[in-house]
Amino acid sequence: MAIKLDKYVIDRLGLAEIIAVAKKKTVPQHKQSFWYYWGGISLFCFLVQIVTGVLLLLYYRPGPEAYESVRQITYEMHFGWLVRSVHNWSADLFLLSVFVHMFSVFFMKAYRAPREFGWWSGMALLVLGLVFGFSGYLLPMDDLAYFATKVGLEIPNSIPVVGPSIANLIRGGIEVGQFTVQRFFALHAVILPLIFLPLLGLHLWLVQKHGMAVPVSEDEKPVAARKTIPFFPNFIAKDLAMWLITMNVIALLAAVFPWQLGEPADSLKPAPVGIHPEWYFMSQFQTLKIMGRLFPGYAGEAIGMTLFTVGLLLWFLIPFYDIKGKGALRARNATYFGLMVVAILIGTTMWGYLAKN
Amino acid sequence: MTHATTDPTRDEHAVVGESPADSEEDSFSRRGFVLMAMGGMGLAYAAAIGYPIYRYLNSPVEKSVEMAMVKEVALPDADKLPKGAVLMFKFGAKPSLLIHHADDSWVALSAVCTHMGCTVAYNPATTQIECHCHGGVYDAKTGDNISGPPPRPLTKYITTIAAGSVTVKRA
Q1: A251 and A163 in a common domain
Q2: How many CA atoms lie within 13 A of B64 on its CB side?
Q3: Domain boundary pick from B40, B68, B96
Q4: CA distance to partner chain B, nearest, from residue A80 (Å)
């Protein structure tokens, strides 16, 4: 055995059972195996978020001093700029890898029985990830953060009847201010992690329970013709190699493109020219803009929001209507739906960036 | 489910079975090299991550050490302190006391007890400095430890009285 673990430790901690399970576990090996790493990459980015988040917590002060404390972290504390930059870049990479992971799961049809709960818990984690991104974005309380939150809260505000009350509750007032920062901080650093971590535990447990799904092309092969590699140490070694690559990418991005801090938020200053949301909200932003042009006034927003809701619901409920049945193994309609979603997301995002000015 | 034949541990066992002496030496040097390289890389990464985190955590420490390095502190209007009274002030980061004794002498001392670091108090009734934590007593003129657990006298500063201020200097 390549790894010599002390017999004493193995014995006292009862590791033999875990090692036995890990050795018996296998991972399918085929042309699409590359996509198996994206869940692990997301997990690694999340771990980086925990470490850098705790480090930022040491100096960050929510409330009226929020901007000043982020300024201190960025410009006065040694390597504070790096910690903050890694936190930002790793958040972006987290969402990016979660999207890749989700689409690979979709196209492998890995949401089908018995993995429906893997799909749903994953979707919930994605939504939580987006709320993490939205709430964290306000915390530096610079001008970009201020307007991003102001605009973002217009979305719950547009819900009929109860919308304004909900938006006010989230905001802690009728305008974005120090109370908004304080509650976004509580959300970002306490409430979301408390919900996210058990859900992540469930998600990972389900992967252990049901194993990796294989793409349809592999599923059609006879069992004897399928290849696998041992989970331990082979797959783990490859997984860790991907983590190492991810870490280097994050470090490079954080060091070469450090995150900036804008001017302090000022409710009397107009929004900066060319202001736009983060890339992971760009598609929705642009779609609302297009809808607003097609249907002026509140109608555009209402139609846009309805489209999102219906689309998201269809996406979420796919395990119910794309079922593995006789002759329906490939179920091309679901694949076309997925391709359409990818095309719309990428198309509107690019449109958003090109039409920015 | 079949295992792919790419499992390195299996290949090695097969080779070891064929000619134990040769391959063992061969695989030792190769394995030794890989382990060394991986260990070295691991250390390099640990240092590259650990050093910024250490400096980041240590930032406020460096700041307060810098603050504590001050050589002198000017206390505006402290010359108006009445006889028998005490003024608490910060010498850098450390609490200190300035006493205007009844005989018109001025004394500035560190207020950090040399025993366990509590902040001491001047008692005008006994004209001694007392520590409420563990009962240490100091002489209010020299800073000498008189009774109780303190192992050393309080640090004494040099005071210069001028009209409008008192300057306290490190001795």
Answers
A1: yes
A2: 8
A3: B68
A4: 6
Interface A:B, Cβ pairs < 8 A: 50
Provide the whole-model pTM. 0.84
Residues in A whose CB is inside 8 Å of some CB of B read 1-2, 26, 29, 55, 58, 76-80, 82-83, 223-224, 226-230, 234, 247
Res B24: pLDDT: 53
Per-residue model confidence as pLDDT tens digits over A79-88: 999 999 999 9
- Determine the average pLDDT of the residues in A131-139: 96
Asked if residue B155 and residue B79 are part of one domain, the reply reads: yes
Query: Among B42, B68, B94, where does a domain finish?
Result: B68
Binned at pLDDT 50, 70 and 90, residue A16 comes out as: confident
Whether residues A83 and B9 touch (CB distance < 8 A) is answered with no
- The alpha carbon of residue A223 is apart from the nearest alpha carbon of chain B, in Å, by 7
Is position A34 within any domain? yes
Residue B22 reports pLDDT greater than 70:
no
Range of the domain at B80: 72-170
Question: Using CB atoms, which residue from B4, B56, B59 is nearest to A229?
Answer: B4
Contact criterion met (CB < 8 Å) for A78 and B7:
no
- % helix / strand / coil in chain B, to the nearest 5? 35, 30, 30
- Partners of B7 on chain A (C-beta within 8 Å) are 229-230, 234
Quick one: which H or E segment has residue A90?
helix A80-107
Regarding whether A302 and A252 lie in a shared domain, the answer is: no
Distance CA A139, CA A147 (A): 12
CATH number at residue A103: 1.20.810.10
* Host domain of residue A308: 276-357
A34: which DSSP letter?
G
Q: Do A80 and B53 touch (CB under 8 A)?
A: no
Confidence of residue A299 (pLDDT cuts 50, 70, 90): confident
Q: What is the pLDDT of residue B9?
A: 47
Contacting residues of A for B56, CB less than 8 Å apart: 55, 77-80, 82-83
Q: Is the dihedral of CA A182, A188, A192, A197 positive or negative?
A: negative
Nearest by CB to B59, which of A2, A26, A78? Answer: A78
Residue B23 lies in a domain: yes
Same domain, B115 and B152: yes
Does some domain include residue B1? Answer: no
3-state secondary structure A131-191: HHHHHHHHCCCEHHHHHHHHHHCHHHHCCCCCHHHHHHHHHCCCCCCHHHHHHHHHHHHHH
With beta carbons under 8 A apart, name residues in chain B contacting A228: 1-4
- Please tell me which residue of chain B has the smallest CA distance to A222: B1
For A49, A245, A251, B77, the CA distances from B49, given in Å and listed in that order, are 14, 15, 10, 50
Contact B62 A78 (CB under 8 A): yes
In this structure, are B123 and B164 located in the same domain? yes
